[in-house]
Amino acid sequence: xxxxxxxxxxxxxxxxxxxxxxxxxxxxxxxxxxxxxxxxxxxxxxxxxxxxxxxxxxxxxxxxxxxxxxxxxxxxxxxxxxxxxxxxxxxxxxxxxxxxxxxxxxxxxxxxxxxxxxxxxxxxxxxxxxxxxxxxxxxxxxxxxxxxxxxxxxxx
Length: 156
Known about the structure:
The protein is an alpha+beta fold. Helix content is 19%, strand content 29%.
């Protein structure tokens, strides 16, 4: 049997003991690999002898889950909004206390009319939601929008 340094026997000048590949060692290694592949937080799949990528996929899933901790909320305000008005967007579930977040607003002009030259601004906010203020031009038009899309993302 060879040590990990490739030298025969324990007297090869290296303090690493021989690893004996007993059935118990082999079973333990296979069980450890199986745990990663089948764990709900890992691969979360049944073992498939024809798929040699299951361990890699499970590890990548676990790494991704551990590094993707950004909390996001998103939605669409679907009724007509008027220039000069403000609207409260309340989150279904608030951010944790003290969470700072950024909001991206996209006005909806579903008629594609240039006479609807309005835009959205973020107003006062809390962990539970935020206000959107609709601004419009003073040059005319109907000063309404069909609503707005929003995305709120926690700032880490």
